[in-house]
């Protein structure tokens, strides 16, 4: 108090005190503002596992991408990968908090490539991109709005990072130049310098998270594949589907009845076409859009008898659902208190983050589907499209913001249904429209309604960076050429499916390529032992079963940048055009798949270092070089690396509980071995150690003579193979 204030009138004393209080508040506000913009220096990285570190900046939100999921990191598997140091200094990763938002900056070197950052359909290497990572249907642009906008990147320097926030995250991948840049671009004059660029070099990878704190998890290499492996293992490993899930799937038209389905199955059997799973579309339900999840008694008067009839034929049943509950079913009143404020297609939206909602939905699904023998789900329309999905102003009884619910809703649906089947010791495999970080161990493959064949393959490649699976499903085609090309690629994907829900298309719809379509579908069935082993490697070691060439050792293909052509309206700044390889990929440890598309008669294939051989003939194809091929229409080009061992079943049409003879193909002129995986193919007993690894070995002596042997560990159980017949594909 100022001197002499004791003798002042009370109103004057109050005035002085108000001035003091105002001054204190202003100073406090300025102090707070100053604090919020300064670089955070008092936080430390914590080692979570070998080669995995995390840091929590500010006050991270309770709900993040992993918090609501039932996943257990496979720490032992990570530990076996060994310790590793990061190629980037922790001090070079910067965090700032401004206006309730968290800014994160990673350094970029010249020539460094960035992969991942969501399920993208047009680009593989993401440098030079600006995105908002936002769960949504894919609208034809790689702008971050996609079915799996996983905020995880992999750097060619040999590390990666997950921004563990369930918010819409903005990303600038080497597009923005800071004043304090350590590697500032050269200032050029557009008027006189032909080397002027619209996008100058940037050494920043920046994220903006709209929350006052976030967890960041770093993953070390040393290779990019090692980074991806650690990421997958930290999220519980990869999924191991039931063996039947790797067969051929067929989804029938929406309003098919039980009789229609059985007639369709009979036609498959008559034609000798493979069939493992029948998918039922919305018409199986009494009401859909919104859903009752109850059988339509007119089309399916005896659902249990119908499903068990298919099971007796070794055909599993998968049913379509979406999340929105109809007022016309028995479920509505029970779940209504645990739903959001807005409806979708006049259906209420369950809050799957609430235990009460999970219990009600689980009991309903068990009663109407699992108890009747249904083997899995296709979970549609949990991804987006703003015109019908709940808006961000919606509220949910859990208190979680609508934005966060949108980012994790597909993951929550995967979680609850996975738990349902796990409780029964039954593996499932299905389809979903949305996912995010943490879902690698869930038995779901992402799909969508977008239908560009080339972009489908790009998405297949990108899925391997972010811990999700993708299928380039086949729906319809304009020509027999397109039909066959699509069928060839889908049979080398995580889920081989024809989806005839809208147009009733059959595998034999184009009579002039029916034999070729049948052949590729049967090859898919033959490859199941190889594919199943690849998925086991995914589950136990985190190795994606289908993966980008960029993750393959010895692969060398730089992104090419072509100078843009000036156009006064279409390209006024002469923006450069990036050219990259996005049409070939690896399946399992040894197969390189190089598809062709409609209208293509030839293509180039980039063969990584080492020798490669034609899958069909065993002939030498090339060694660390670019080859040009003209394979014709009947076959999709497939190559096998030196020493590759490919186990094949007979060309069966059904996946049964039986032992089959194995043809073991060996390619090249070197000794090699392959750890064939086997278990019961349907339960979770493998998690308790009830599985076998059978060593298939080929020895090549000094004279080039080859000997094959199968080594079964003493006491090991064999479920799937009766004998092992070696075939040496490559002659001297």
Walk me through the structure.
The N terminus is likely disordered. The radius of gyration is 28 Å and the shape is globular. A hairpin with a 5-residue loop joins strand 26 and strand 27. It has five domains: 33 residues; 189 residues, Sandwich (Immunoglobulin-like), CATH 2.60.40; 303 residues, TIM Barrel (Alpha-Beta Barrel); 92 residues, Sandwich (Immunoglobulin-like), CATH 2.60.40; 84 residues, no CATH class. The strands form eight sheets. A seven-stranded parallel beta sheet has the order 18-17-16-15-14-13-19. It is built from twelve helices and 35 strands. It is 22% helix and 23% strand. It has 732 residues and is of the alpha+beta class.
Helix share, percent? 10-25%
Structural class based on helices, strands and sheet pairing: alpha+beta
> In one word, what is the shape?
globular
Q: Kindly report the CATH topology of the largest domain.
A: TIM Barrel
- Please state the CA-atom Rg, rounded to the nearest Å: 28 Å
What composes the largest sheet? 7 strands, parallel
Number of strands: 35
Q: What's a concise summary of this model?
A:
Helix content is 22%, strand content 23%.
Question: What attributes does this structure have?
Answer:
seven-stranded parallel beta sheet; Immunoglobulin-like; 5 domains; alpha+beta; TIM Barrel; 23% strand; 12 helices; 35 strands; 732 residues; six-stranded antiparallel beta sheet
């Amino acid at each position: 108090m100022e001197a002499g204030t004791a003798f002042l009138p009370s109103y004057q004393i109050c005035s002085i005190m108000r001035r003091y209080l105002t001054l204190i508040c202003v100073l406090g506000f300025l102090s707070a503002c100053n604090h919020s913009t300064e670089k955070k220096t008092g936080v430390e990285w914590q080692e979570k596992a070998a080669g995995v570190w995390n840091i929590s900046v500010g006050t991270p939100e309770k709900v993040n991408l992993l918090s609501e999921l039932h996943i257990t990191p496979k720490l032992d598997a990570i530990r076996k990968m060994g310790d590793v140091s990061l190629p980037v200094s922790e001090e070079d990763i910067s965090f700032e908090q401004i206006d309730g938002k968290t800014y994160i900056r990673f350094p970029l070197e010249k020539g460094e490539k960035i992969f991942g950052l969501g399920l993208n359909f047009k680009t593989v290497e993401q440098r030079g991109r600006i995105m908002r990572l936002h769960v949504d249907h894919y609208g034809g642009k790689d702008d971050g709005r996609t079915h799996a906008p996983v905020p995880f990147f992999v750097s060619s320097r040999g590390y990666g990072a997950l921004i563990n926030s369930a918010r819409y995250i903005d990303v600038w991948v080497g597009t923005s130049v800071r004043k304090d840049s350590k590697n500032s671009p050269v200032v050029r004059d557009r008027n006189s310098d032909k080397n002027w660029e619209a996008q100058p070099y940037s050494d920043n990878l920046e994220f903006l998270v709209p929350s006052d704190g976030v967890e960041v998890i770093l993953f070390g290499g040393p290779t990019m594949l090692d980074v991806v492996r650690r990421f997958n293992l930290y999220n519980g490993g990869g999924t191991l589907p039931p063996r039947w899930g790797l067969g051929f799937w067929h989804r029938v038209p929406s309003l098919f009845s039980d009789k229609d389905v059985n007639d369709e199955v009979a036609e498959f059997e008559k034609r000798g076409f493979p069939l493992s799973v029948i998918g039922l579309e919305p018409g199986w339900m009494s009401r859909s859009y919104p859903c009752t999840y109850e059988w339509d008694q007119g089309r399916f008067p005896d659902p249990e008898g119908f499903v068990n009839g298919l099971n007796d034929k070794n055909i599993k049943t998968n049913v379509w659902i979406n999340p929105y509950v109809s007022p016309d079913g028995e479920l509505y009143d029970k779940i209504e208190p645990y739903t959001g404020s807005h409806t979708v297609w006049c259906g209420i939206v369950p809050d799957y983050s609430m235990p009460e909602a999970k219990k009600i939905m689980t009991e309903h699904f068990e009663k109407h589907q699992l108890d009747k023998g249904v083997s899995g789900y296709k979970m549609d329309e949990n991804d987006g499209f703003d015109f019908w999905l709940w808006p961000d102003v919606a509220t949910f009884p859990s208190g979680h913001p609508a934005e966060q619910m949108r980012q994790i809703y597909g993951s929550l649906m995967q979680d609850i249904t996975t738990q349902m089947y796990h409780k029964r010791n039954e593996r499932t495999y299905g389809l979903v429209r949305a996912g995010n970080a943490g879902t690698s161990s869930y038995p779901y493959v992402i799909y969508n309604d977008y239908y560009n064949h080339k972009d489908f393959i790009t998405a297949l490649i990108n899925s391997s960076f972010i811990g999700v699976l993708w299928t380039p499903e086949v729906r319809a085609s304009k020509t027999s050429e397109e039909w066959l090309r699509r069928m060839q690629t889908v049979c080398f994907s995580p889920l081989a499916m024809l989806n005839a829900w809208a147009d009733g298309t059959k595998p034999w719809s184009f009579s002039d390529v029916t034999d070729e379509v049948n052949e590729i579908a049967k090859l898919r069935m033959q490859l199941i032992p190889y594919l199943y082993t690849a998925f086991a490697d995914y589950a136990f070691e985190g190795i994606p079963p289908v993966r980008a060439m960029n993750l393959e050792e010895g692969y060398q293909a730089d992104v090419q940048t072509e100078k843009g052509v000036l156009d006064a309206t279409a390209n006024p700044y002469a923006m450069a055009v990036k050219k990259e390889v996005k049409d070939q990929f690896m399946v399992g440890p040894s197969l390189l798949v190089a598809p062709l598309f409609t209208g293509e008669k030839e293509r180039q294939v980039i063969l990584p270092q080492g020798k490669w051989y034609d899958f069909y003939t065993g002939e030498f194809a090339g060694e660390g070089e670019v080859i040009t091929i003209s394979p014709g229409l009947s076959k999709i080009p497939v190559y096998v690396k030196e020493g590759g061992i490919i186990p094949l079943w007979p060309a069966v049409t059904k996946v049964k509980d039986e032992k089959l003879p194995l043809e073991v193909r060996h390619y090249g002129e070197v000794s090699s071995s392959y750890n064939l995986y086997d278990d019961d193919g349907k339960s979770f007993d493998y998690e308790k150690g009830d599985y076998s690894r059978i060593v298939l070995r080929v020895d090549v002596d000094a004279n080039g003579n080859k000997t094959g042997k199968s080594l079964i560990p003493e006491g090991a159980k064999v479920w799937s193979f009766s004998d092992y017949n070696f075939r040496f594909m490559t002659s001297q």
